[in-house]
Every structure is written in structure tokens, then in C-alpha cells.
Design goal:
Elements: H1 15-21, H2 24-27, H3 31-47, H4 53-71, H5 84-96, H6 109-145, E1 150-155, E2 158-164, H7 165-190, E3 192-193, H8 209-215, E4 220-221, H9 225-230, H10 233-259, E5 267-268, H11 287-310, H12 325-345, E6 350-351, H13 353-362, H14 367-376, H15 381-398, H16 407-411, H17 427-433, H18 442-456
Parallel strand pairs: 3-4
Antiparallel strand pairs: 1-2, 5-6
Helix pairs in contact: 3-4, 3-6, 3-8, 4-5, 6-7, 6-12, 6-18, 7-10, 7-18, 10-11, 10-12, 11-12, 14-15
Amino acid sequence: MKKLWSGRFKEKTADIVEQYTESISFDNRLWKYDIEGSIAHAKMLAKQSIIPKKDADKIIKGLKEIYTEIAGGRFKFRQELEDIHMNIESALIEKIGEVGGRLHTARSRNDQVALDIRLYLRDEIKEITSLLKNLETAFAEIAEKDLGVIMPGYTHLQRAQPVLLSQHLMAYAQMFERDRMRFVDALKRINILPLGSCALAGTTFPTDRKYVAELLKFDAVSENSMDSVSDRDFALEFLSCASIFMMHISRLAEELILWSSEEFSFIELPDAFTTGSSIMPQKKNPDVAELMRGKTGRVYGSLISLLTTMKGLPLAYNRDMQEDKEPVFDTADTVKLTLNALVQMFPKIKFNTKRMKDTADAAFSTATDIAEYLVRKGVPFRTAHEITGKIVRYCIDKNKKLSDLSTPEYKSFSNVIGNDIYKFIGTAESVNAKKSYGGTSPSTVKEQIKRFRKGLK
């Protein structure tokens, strides 16, 4: 089949080149954005009298017919036509004749593909942020429902201080809210119209780019034609936002995997979101959480792939940039699938609240409360820290809990310690006392959830 750009060439493109350079096998998913952009472009060409209105009307009618054919699965994509742009334009010319060839006036595939990817990402981010909002809501609802549950908080994966399960869950809700805001902020750079920049230098035709921006609901028009066609910062920003989000997901997945083990026994994952072993009948494997953790590397790889592709490119467009699409598409798919799975799985997780409380009670997790008790008695914090450390060492040597020590035993470490020490060494008392803004007391966590849910509206 004759190429739309074949006028300069004497020889037919080699078969291996057809295979090596095609992108229609993956960029066909941009079809509706390509048609949407082409319709807006045709309207602008007619408005500016660059092409006759009757020709624009034929073009638009033909594009809408192609839209219906693709949506209905009746359109045949051709590898020899390289990409989605040439597939649609060639089909248009076949459908309405040489009038279809007027559509490409005052544009290039360089600015056309930049437009399509921006339109695609705009839709993807809207869907991702909606899913993120659903996830955040689920976490806040569970945190509100289980407000009184105490668990051990960890640093260095060692038991540290008692916290509320709700505080732990809301930490992830806060992460996901930052993720959502990052994606929303990325839209500011994505929602800029590149169309009209042509190959790199603009055009001699009297185009109206602002009119096209209005038709396609873009907030602004790109300022520099060379930058417009060579810019993939917006795609890198999307991949970066996705990578940070998946890092948060991986941290959560790691905790779910740990918590579901017999060693922790903090949670029971739903059967519908676990798998069995092919050889060990007793096994219940957290495969979904493990894959969430694993797919994080996949998304990181997409970011590194495109960063590497872009790092050495001179201005303006280079064919290397065709390699932007698969990482972007794969990442969008991975993020949405992960979100959908987590939104469905998390509310079905059963929390072993007794095991959490017992584990918190078993540790020396209220030792910091003893140090703070001493500080309130006038002891400098560093001295209080040392005294408390000696108390803990004594308990370990005597195989005792902090609550097992008598008042005389406590006084042997410091004369300022009185009978009131027992008001500060229980896990419930410790949690209830953490009333600083953002702290883990039930009252502060309740306010945190209230503020959070209000912010989601």
C-alpha cells in the first residue's frame, strides 16, 4: 500500500522496517483521541478559511463514521500504515476521497501524537484520582469503625510505642491523598495544547490554536513549537506520580504480608484475594499483596525507561520518542488494576484486634511514657531516658513487665517516682495521652478522620 509520505522515496519500505518501526500494535488505543483531535483541527481549518467549510464537514462526517467502525470492532488496523494517525487518515481518504487529504494541513504527526497522549493521560488521571478517592474513603471508614483498637507501632520493624490501628490506617490514607494531589497537579502540565506546532517550526497558515484549545478543553496553549513536539516531561511526571504511588502500595503490601503471617497474626486476608499451594494443602498465600509489591518494580522500570530514552535526545522530535507509549500505557493499566484490586480487597480484611492489643501489651512499648513522666517531675530528658533504660534492663533481667514492678522497685531508680507511675505505663493510658495535633489518641485521631473526610468532598 502506498505510504502517505512516499513521494520522496524510490524504493518500497523493507518488510523488516515495517515490522521494526510500526506502533499501531500498541498505539491503536489512542484512536478516539486521534479522531477527537482531528475533528477539532478540521473545525479550526474551516473557521480560518484554510480549507472550505464543505470539505471540513465531509471530513468530520467521515471521522465520525470511522469512530463508529472502530468502536464497533469493524475497523481493520494495518501494520504497513505504521501508526494510529496514518491508519485513520488513510481510512478517511479511502472513505471520502482526496478531500480527506486536506485534514493534515497545518499539522504534523509530531504535534498530533503529543496531543493524543495528553488527551489520553487526561482521561487516565481522572479515572485514577477517582479510584484513589474511593480507596481513601475505604481506609477512613475502617479507621472510624475500629477507632479504639490498640496495636504496637513499629520503628526499624521493632516494637516501639502503642498506637491506634486507626492511626496506622490513616497514615496510608494520608499517603494516598498526597498521591491524588500529585496526579491532580500533574494535570496542570498535561492539559496544555501542543497541536498547531506542526513538525517543529509552526506553520505559515493563519491557524487559531486558542480556538482548538477551547474545543478540546485545554487550559492553555504551548508557547514554543520546538518544545511542544519534543516535550515528554508530562509523561515522565505521570510515571513519577505513579511510581511514588506504587511505592506506597508496596509498603502497604509488605505490611499486609507480614501481618497475615502466623508470626504476626494481626490480620486474616479474604480467601477471594489469596491463593493456595500446589503441594502444601495448608497454605494460604498472600499472592495479591505480593504482586502489588512486585508490580511496583514494573512501574519503576517504565519511569527509568522513558527517562533513559529522553536523556540524550537533541531538539526537536526524534523517532526514539515512539518508545514513550508502551511504558505510559502499561503503567496506567497497572495502577488502575492495582487500585481496583485494593479497593475491593481491603474492606474484607479481618483484623485480629485481641492479638494486636496483646502484642502491644507484651512489649516495653510504654517506656517513653515513663521517661516523659520523669520529665514532668523535673528530671532532664536525657537523664530520664537513661533511668528508663535501666528500668527496662532490670525488667529484662528479672523477666518482668513494667506493670509488674512495685513502687519500691521503681523508686530504686529515682526518688521522684511515686505511686502515680501506674497511671502512665498501660498501653491504653499511653495511647489516650498522645493528644498532640496528629497524635494517636482516640480524640485526635477522630478529629484527623473528620478533617480528612471533609477534605475528600
